[in-house]
Structures are given as structure tokens and as C-alpha cells.
Amino acid sequence: MAGARGFSTLERFELKYHIPVSWADRIGSLIAPYCEEDYYSKITPGGFYWITNLYLDSPRWTFLNWKKAGLLDRFNMRVRTYGEHPDPEGVFHFEVKRKIKSVCYKSRATIKGAKPSVVFNQSPEHWHAKSERDVKYLKDFLYKTTLHNAKPRLLTQYKRRAWFGITEEYSRVTIDTGMRFREENGFDYSVNPQYMHSTGLPKFFAPACDAVLELKCPCSQVPFWMIDLIKILNLKQGGFSKFGNAAAEWMRVYENPRGFKTPLYTSLAGNFF
Fold first, then answer.
1. Arithmetic mean of pLDDT, 215-221
2. Most CB atoms within 10 A, among 4, 11, 111, 245?
3. For the domain 7-269, what is the CATH code?
4. 0.85 surpassed by pTM
């Protein structure tokens, strides 16, 4: 799996654990002999940088329903970029994340210097793709969106601190916190924190936890230091779906508006017009 850091396809285990975000420095110290910090973590004060994902799904939430039904072979689709306020013509990764039983398969195609909508609105020569391989995966991405009538649904964000293993071809440790989302039906990546809804809520985490630790490695090569980390911290595996939890909150916020009281200022405004 050489060159996995700039991967186009990746096959891996993903083990998730709920932890207090305050453990981040300790985890960094424990894995320091075997890992180096991610580039974005190195250049960001405090080590946590923003990731912004635009998730696609059908009007009937096809991908989400596959997950809820526990299908042994399923996938979701997203367009990823970086930063709390992403450059609208920066770097965008079109990703299909497929899960077969307990194994994750992730494909990625990258464009740079164009808005992500260009892939849907223009021909391949205008895509600003990095390589012919990226064009191939972008075409597959487009095929899947057409097949399943998938369109932009949710814009999600979270802060991540990450490390890469230095003793294996591919291994990765990430800590994610501060999950939030808003509805997005186009390709607008602008973010006003005031209008973002939290999915970093206690109901989504184990008690006293506010972050998700993920250990990622090839199925055939689980590093010994990962096993040691699990034992030292007495970690208990627990799931967390950023897309699934955001969709659950979306349904609460947008599909059940009667659950929310009309703000006072709206009532007052009616007295003046």
C-alpha cells in the first residue's frame, strides 16, 4: 500500500472509540515512537484542524437507510475539503466510502483550482483533476450519483488531530471533536458558525467523552503499538457516524419544526409591520 498518504483507493480496518478530547496529548506521547503528526496538525496551533465534508444522498436517504438496515455491503458519498472557511476553488476530494462487513474501502479523486460543481456541470477537460486516474474515479462518482439520484444534503465539519504511522505502509490515528452540520442542497461551502447545528452532543457519546478516536490500518497488518494503545487506555470499541448523527439531527431540526418554539423577536416583529 505504498503511497497511501496520497491514495486513490484504500482498504482498511477502522476501529472507533469514544474518549475525552483532553487525552489527545497523552495519546500523542504514547504513539510518538511509531508515528509522526499529520501535516495539517503540525501547522495548526493546538494540532486540531478543520475538515469540511459535503455529504450526498437521495431525496429518500438511500445511503442512510442502508446503514440503518445494517446492510453488509453499503457506501456513502462525500466531497471533502479543509479549513473552517474553505477556499471555494481550493482542493476537493470526491470520496466513496464503502463498507463490506467490517472492512472499509475508500476511493478518492481530487480536483484543485475549481469549484466542485464543475464536475457535475462541465466536461472532464474542465475538471482540474490531478491525473487520469482521478478522472476515472470522478466518472465513477458521477455514475453513482446518477444511479442513486444522489445530491448534496448535509455540510458537516469537525476538528481533527491526526498522526501517520512510520513503521508500516499505512497506519493512521485520528481524534475528531466539535462535530457540527447544516443543510446544504448545492455546493456552497461557506460557514457561519451561528447556523451550524451540533452533533457533538452528549447523546451521541459515551459518558464523559466528547471526541472520537479512530485507529486505521490494513486488514492484514494491525500494528502491535495499536494493540498496546488499546490495552494501556483500556479502550472499549464504540461506533460514531458523522453522517448518520448529522442526518438524525437534521430530521429533528428540519422535519419536526413544531418541536421548536418561535423566537420572541419573530413575534415582536409582527407588531411593527
1. 86
2. 111
3. 3.20.100.30
4. yes
